[in-house]
Fold:
Amino acid sequence: MTRSVQALAYSRSSALESAGGGRLLGLETAGGLTPTGAEPHPRFFSGFLTSPQAAARGLLAVADVASTRYYQRELRASLDPVVTGNGDRLRCESFSGCCGVYARLDVLQEGLDGAETGHGTTNVDVNNPLREALSRLAGDDPLHLRVGPDELAVTTLDGPVVEKKVPLPDRWLRGFAEAQVVSAGFDLRAELSADEAVRFLRSLPRSSGSASRGAMWVVPAGRTLRPTTRPGPGAVCLPGPERLTALQRVLRQATGLRVYGPPVADGAATSSAWEVTLPGMRLTLTLSPDAARGFSGEGGVLEALATDEAAEDAELISVLLAWEPRIDPADLAEQSGLTVARVRAALVRLGTAGRVGYDLADAAYFHRELPYDADRAERHNPRLVAARALVSAGAVRIAGATATVASGDRRYQVRDSDGVLSCTCTWWADYRGSRGPCKHALAVRMTKRGAQTAGGAR
Amino acid sequence: MKDLLEAVRAGRKQDVPGLVKSMTTAERRAAAVELKALRREVRGWNGDLDRWRQRDAAQYALLVAGAGCHTGAAAAAAWLGARELRNWRPLPTAVLLEILADRDPAWLGDLAHRLADRASTAGEDYPLISELVRIAQCPVPTTDAFVHGWAESLISARPSHASRATLPLALRNDPHVRVLVPRLFETVEPAPVLSWYEDPEAPNHWPSALARLSEEGVLERSVLVDGCVARLLRGGRPGQLRFFLILLKRLALTPQEELDRTADWIAMAADGPSPLAAHAQEVLARPAESGELPVGQLAEMSGAVLFRTEKKLVRAQLVLLGKVLRREPSAAGELLPVVAEAFGHEDTGVQERALKLVARHLSSSGRKRAEDVDDSLRKELADCADRLSPVHRTLAAEVFGQELLSAETVPYYEETLPPAPVPRLMAPAPDTVAETVELVAALLKSRSMSVPEFERALDGLVRHSYRDREALAEALRPALSGSWWLEDASDRDASDRKASPLPSAEQLHGMEVVAAAVLERVSLSSLRDGRVRGGSTADCAHLALDAVVNDRLWEAAHRIRTRPLPFLLATPTEESGTLEAGELVERLRSYQRLCADPASGDFAQALLRVRRDGSGGDGAAVAAAALGTREGERLAAWLRADGDAAPLLRRVHEPGPPSQHHWWDRARDAVRHIVLETRERLVLQHEFPQPFQRLGRPHSGQGRCYHWSALESQWLSVMPEDRDTLAAWLLPEVTACATSEARGSALVLPRLAESGGPAGEALHLAVACGLGARHAEDRLSAVDALLVLAARGQLDGERLGRDVAELVSLGTVKPNRLADAVRTAAATGAYATTWSVLGAALPGLLEAGHPPRGTGEILSVAADCLERCGAAAEPDGVPEPRGLAELAARGGSSQLVTQANRLLTALRHSHDQSRTQIAENSR
Structure:
């Protein structure tokens, strides 16, 4: 497995302290991008949290996801959450070690007592004493939050004090980035009141034992969600319901639950997103279609990456981004002179590179730059690499709507029906396109696009 | 160096240390390169057992030699850490230490830490690492895996068996105990060895040993206490926290120590797993009762605990609050609003306790307070009273006064049912060869096949064989390459070669037969013979269904090679398998035009699939008769006849002596259950071709059949308009879901509910069994089926209720499972539907006088349904089931009696309501 090692250097540990009669939550930062460029310890925020308990629990939930593997629990992977300042809100993101659960806490302006935040993305330190302090945080006295070093501390301390080294597998990076693009295809499916949300979330199994097996489906029914074994229109897949355990942390503070999912075609499991609304905040968990299957293998974006068509557009768009909390494609189209469709394609590409995230409640992308080299991971997607190899070996022969791809001593037939490619290989037989195109279909797509651009240049 | 490599090659590991020692650093460096190449080479040494043994010995020698020759600590650690070289054996610590004896201590320390950093091996490498640390005199590593290895080593070391206190001794003598014990509380997963011994007297019981060491002063008490509390506070699965809770209890905290950590206990009581929360609650109860715990903190703790679902914790908290309020009535203003949190608890018993607690202290606080404060508190609490169950309404009115409660209106009740499923139409037949090839390839390569995929692939093969079989075969061959039956017999096993150059039809599964026929890879005679013989004749409806599907495939294959059919008559128009009569008439007309001769099996299957519910059937019958062909007349007659399900014979299976049965059948047979026999149907026996006749024979529905069917997914499409007969045949498997550990057989129920034909005795009985299934997903399937039937207006609640009651009294279905299923059905908004079932079940459930354990839960669901839908269930009032009043009058506080009372109240309330309504209407 390809992987790199991420070294994080914090100037000190994050902590919850009592200071001058009030309480101060100091989150330390390490590395990241701001509008002024890369910084070792960016500062984004200093102000008050309106609902300290909800915020503390939301933060714990995000940290829970970061330190958990929901599949093959014995393996470890723990990375610190990523915090983005979008000017009017703070976003705290994490991605589970099994690559199947994405969590984000959005602290909105109401939750920040109306204060503004800086712009940029960085890692924040979460450690055991901090977790314990957050767990025992009681009462609703105002809590002062600081993201980034104290101004005094910067001048008095030199050299990093807390160092963390964490392996970053390629598939983890890919999954983190792709979860965004996947959720961009979701719609709001159900909205539950606080009481119903608590009842529903409590009814879910907490462990992956015999109580749950595979995916569960729910359909909106009256004020609540009805579990079912026969998904119909409007149904939402809940794959591996035990993976929503992190939401138990915020049940008491929840003001509602919103459920998002893609349109359901047949009974095949899909990913879905579960958003608990809190006072001034939103906590969202996005689940991959199977606990045993990370987002990285879903391949929903491979077609967009199969050619360099969108690459230049993406580069152009990326220059125009400035940590907007909500990206408006029409705006960008005007600024860049591209069509809205091309801007959207470019955003998908930027999403896979970890440079934009997707906010379901706003139904819009937002700008954030993952502090990892996610772009490299996506370029090395195994299926994409295999497809390129097929193309360069001249394995693709196109004849009208059907093409033949020679791979080894087998020949596969790739059929084009209204732009949708299907194949005769086992991957297609198993997933019927629900996990993105197979390498043969990708190779055909590449060849066709290549022929088009070559034809156009002539 | 040459000697070393030879020794390694030969696997003489005992020679290695001596040879390495005689080498210079430069020689060792060069040898390391050679060893790396040798390691690669050895990896390929497999084949026979001897070679494998050589490889094993060489790898062990390699491990030792490499450790000696790598001059960098990083490289040495990577070499030693490789799983490949050690072959699941522990590292040879003594040999390795000998070979590393001449290294610098700092280098050894570096190596120790690098080995400890390797999460997958550091635990088992503990002996080597600890020796390295001892020699290097470096700080001990503290990685998770190393700490786990250390903890385990203390138990396996066993310095002397004579000593009863093995573990305390080992800990006391360990040089690093003060560094490593605190790490036990910090590893992500607790070291497994900590909970190996459960008996507190066992010499290796960790909690006792640690407590003893802290008493002796070897370990600081505060380290242990703080470590435990912090670990418990961080949370985790109950299994992860168990050890720390035991240790904490064993350490017996002093009242002062407990009081110092109030905030921690509150957090644990709020969020910990049940056992931990119960302990935290106990700890906090002491200062709360003595008044040391500030009321504000007690309120905070109570709010969190009362929000929990565990009845035990909530009750204990209410008791605690009662004690505090009695001692300190002035706290009512702060505590009573918190008590009201429990008004929303799902258990009505808990609600009642909370309400009574409020009642007791609301009045008493009033005497000592200013009137207006009391009033506002009363108002605040009354607002929460909405969440109370209607059964407590009278009491609530007494407590708060009727005028403060939100006016009771007859709530407008609306039943929420899922929309009735709309039949999904089949996609058109594959138009091109390419699409057919893709369908067939997908079907043969994946393990699952849905009805529409199967039917479209089959129809595609038939259609395109008719048009141009050569072209189809040419496109199909590469897509299926790799299938064994495509290869020539000479390439296959010698045993096969003798038989026939071509595979026989019996060797091919499912759709393979048809694909093979297209490709001329199946012997024609075997197809024909197989059809005549018609397979096994055992009394098993499942085999009969299989035979029908198989026969259709063989027939299609045979016709492709003899007289190709233009297309299939039986291809359904809906994904469930149903075929519209009008469409079948059109198809027959096309056959007539093309002068095609219908295949008998295909036509028989088409007849079984035709919808015969009278809607437009008559028009189709006239059109069919007008065709003037034999098939047309047959269809017309079929459409005019009524399509009853197979007649059923119902009886109860009594368990026989267990010795008669196989052990794997005992679980199923040991429980009484209902058996349905289907009797013979002469129409099928007389008017249908051979394989269909078996469907018309009587099937006993008894016993278990042992066969694996690849075509199970197609069964429902054989008789899509006769679900009750199918339900009777599938009943034994669904029953097994309730009586034994069987799993997944009830998944078919929603599909049956969506199919056509009357919903009769068998389907209702199958749903009733499914509602009591062992596994949640099976119960959920039954709930789905119930709701679909209700949505289609086909549910006979009365019948289902009686079935359910009978199954419970037989012992087939356990009441708690049934309660869970009906609760799920009701909670989605189908209260009236659920009541229609439970209402009918109650007389049967209560008849015996001693209802089985768990009946209280069912009564609770029934009461909930009636409270919500009230008179909407039955406009002229609900009759009171016999036995309920007697049960309610029994007294006591058991769930059964409590819920009987609740149900009785709800029943009488709905009577009153309907009477008022009738009075209003008559006015």
In short: Confidence is low (pLDDT under 50) at residues 454-458 of chain A. The two ends of chain A are 42 Å apart (CA to CA). Residues 219 and 235 of chain A are 5 Å apart (CA to CA). Chain A touches chain B through 53 residues (CB under 8 Å).
